[in-house]
Amino acid sequence: MLYPLTFETIYKDKIWGGQKIKTILGKDFSPLPNCGETWEVSDVEGNVSVVREGVLKGKSLRELVQHYKGELVGQHVYEQYGDRFPLLIKFIDANDDLSIQVHPDDELARQRGTGFGKTEMWYIMQADEGAKLNSGFNRDLTKDEYVQAVADNTIQDVLNIETAEPGDIFFLPAGRVHYIGKGLLLAEIQQTSDTTYRIYDFDRVDATTGQKRELHTEQAVDAIDYKHYDHYKTPYERKLNESVNAVTSDYFVTNVLNFNQEVEHDYTHIDSFVILICVSGGLTINAPGGYSLPLSMGQCALIPASVRNVTLVPDGDMTVLETYVP
Predict the structure, then answer these.
(1) Residues 118, 183 within the same domain
(2) pLDDT at site 260
(3) Mean per-residue pLDDT for 130-150?
(4) Is the confidence at residue 209, as pLDDT, over 90?
(5) Catalytically annotated residues
(6) One domain, residues 57 and 168
(7) How many whole angstroms from its chain centre is CA 19?
(8) Which residue of 68, 92, 134, 144 lies most exposed, with the fewest beta carbons within 10 A?
(9) Closest by alpha carbon to 303, among 63, 44, 73, 49?
(10) Model's pTM, two decimal places?
(11) Does the annotation list 37 as a binding residue?
């Protein structure tokens, strides 16, 4: 019988990474000097998650999907994605600004032979005072205006900059130019894709190679949505002891669960796996068959589609992101 699954953390050393993965999330990323990202649930080639505990310990996520199919991911999801697990879950610590970048949509990614596109969302877990990020442009641009701004190094002048605080959510459809600013710790939910077009990297030089990182200026041009939008921060109601929907997209639905009392969640109406991402506090997940799983800030659990209900028992106040494929 399938049960709520946790996976071994995959640590990523990044030029802009810091120490919050260790100091705030309690994850030991030795021997890396710092850590920019942890990949918690991943089916990206070369970075496939491995089950941490239980009778399936040591099995890869890809093996599980191939073996259990719809029982693990949901019949609808399996028909849509086959043996590829469709979501990638990360925690990101930006000790410095990340590069200005953009991701292609599914159609462009297919044309270029890079698999799926990359729509994503961020949930801000911790923010240093005054921390900011970029989502989109501050005005409508033409393609020619964008190309000129990159060429004359004024791209930062046309970016929409937002102050970010804990609990803020930003939904970033494929094509939206963005960067995570210095001082932010966040959870990221995204399509299973590692395709990024780096537009500008603040003229950084890699300490090891002495070289600037590669830019993908030409590849980015056809991927970008040049339209300006009125709102870039995702509005949602912050309620206690209620499940609140924050994001609904073609690729994932994400609800925010802010609870301080026990709650039972019935997933019989969802033909999908569910991933629970603890972004504050702690809880215990109780599932049928006497299975019990503690989860603390910075940990995730994959609830297989065949597990139709779970009970969440908070350890005081807890905030969990609940995400699944619609």
Answers:
(1) yes
(2) 96
(3) 96
(4) no
(5) 198
(6) yes
(7) 19
(8) 144
(9) 73
(10) 0.96
(11) no
Same structural domain, 253 and 207: no
Question: Is 228 labeled as ligand-binding?
Answer: no
What confidence tier does 218 reach under pLDDT thresholds 50, 70, 90?
confident
**Domain membership flag for residue 234:** no
- Cβ atoms of residues 243 and 283 within 8 Å: no
Q: Is the pLDDT of residue 217 over 90?
A: no
Both 202 and 270 in one domain: the answer is no
pLDDT at 211 over 90: no
Provide the number of structural domains found in the chain. 2
* Tokens 């911790």, located at residue: 126
Answer yes or no: are the C-beta atoms of 61 and 49 closer than 8 Å: yes
Bridge-based pairing of strands 253-259 and 318-324 is: antiparallel
pLDDT digits (tens, 9 = 90+) for 62-93: 999 999 999 999 999 999 999 999 999 999 99
Q: 59 is in which domain, residue-wise?
A: 10-221
153 Cβ partners below 8 Å, 6+ apart? Answer: 200
- Residue whose token pair is 């900011």: 132
What CATH number should be reported for the domain holding residue 268?
Answer: 2.60.120.10
